[in-house]
Every structure is written in C-alpha cells, then in structure tokens.
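FAQ: What does the model actually see?

It sees only this:
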Amino acid sequence: MELIDQLEAYRPWNAQEAQDKQELLRLLRRGDELYTRAHPAHLTISAWVVSPDREQVLMAYHNLYDSWAWLGGHADGQRDLLPAAIREVREESGLTRVRAVSPDIYSIEILPVAGHEKQGVYVPSHLHLNITYLLEADPAEPVRSKPDENSRVGWFSPAEALAASTEVWFRERIYSKLNEKLHLWKKSEG
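And it is asked to produce this:
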C-alpha cells in the first residue's frame, strides 16, 4: 500500500497528529521527493519496540541527542517504510528477530532537527517527516550499541523509558503518547 493511502487511512490520536497528517499528505501530493535527504523536509521512520508481553520498551542512548530515545532513521530512498524501520532497529540494536506487531502506522510526527555536526560534517536544520511503527522483539536476545550512533541499548518499563529521556518535548509529547497507545493496544490484545 502506498504511503498516501496508509496516511489517509490513519486515524490521528490527537491534534498534533491531525495537523501533521494534513501536512504530510500535502507534501506527498505536491510530489516533493521526500524519500531522500535531498529535501529539507524528508521522511524518517521510528520504532516503538516492545517486548511480547508489552511490559518493556527498547531504547538507545543516542550520541547526537545525548539522551535515551527510540530507534529509527532515514528512509534513504526506500519507499516501503515498515521494512526500513525493522532494518534500522536491527542496525542500531544488534537484534536479529524483530517483527511488526501490525503493518499499520502506529504514530506520525513532524520533528524539527536543529543544525548539528555529524561525523565532522555540518548538517543544516531540517524537518523529519516521521512515521512510527510498533515493533516487537525478545528482551532475552542480546543487544549491542552502534558506536557511530549510540553508546548503549537497553530495555525499560514504559514509565522508565519516559524518565530516561532527557529531551523534554519528546518525553512529554511523543513517548508519553506512544505509551498511552501501547496501554490501549495491550488492553485490546488481552
């Protein structure tokens, strides 16, 4: 299914998602090349990786943001974003068995990224047009860091994941939203 179709079918969780959905659809319909980093607003994917019992969330300590955060990255030309999210989790955590809890979009966000240095190269300010998926992995499987991106990877309870993030906006607006959705998801599964 095309991303436009997925977004049209997506039911926003709150006002932020409703606004961001409108803007994502506007940019995609306009025909902007959003799948590569060539555009100052480009597609990224994130994953809220949970344990099978939904009691743990996987986070990585990202070097760039100096905070515990979700896993993910750039689409980099890939148009099927769910496999890209799974690829990013595998690369950033060392996990080999990662699966989608659902093929549907879990969350959407437009995220501002301030200009910064990455591996000695200046990256100008830009927007991440982010699509989030709910993925599952086994906390018993070994994890490892990806030194060029993160220094640690670990499992947290959903509440601990919030407390571990030092990025206030992410903690209050994104991760808390993902945990609220997870709580409802867990209730619907049980």
